[in-house]
Amino acid sequence: MSAVEFADASLDPALAARLRPAGHTPDGRPLVTAVAQDADSGRVLMVAWMDASALAATLRTREATYWSRSRQELWVKGATSGNRQRVVDVALDCDGDTVLLRVRPEGPACHTGLTSCFDTLTLLAAGDGDGTAA
Global pTM? Predict the structure, then answer.
């Protein structure tokens, strides 16, 4: 896969050249993984997908915009629920396949109503038999 795949949106060409697909939409458009993190607490809120259009919209509007795999369309977080994510900054990882959005959430991030999508089950906690203090 080449960076040309990401050049179809209004992304800066230098950014498009650094992006690498982590997945694809059913029609073949590349996707990058998007991690939303609370800018104040550092807590990871959710993981989603972005295509080039979603990333361009996020950078332009500072509203977290994702690609919904279930609905097969762009999704502005909170457009229907009111649980928006105001974007403080966006960073690209070293491989170019994941973006980190530091956001100020206006309500829960998870569709279940939980603050974080990672509030459902802790598989391993600090101090769980690994010799570290809790």
Answer: 0.89
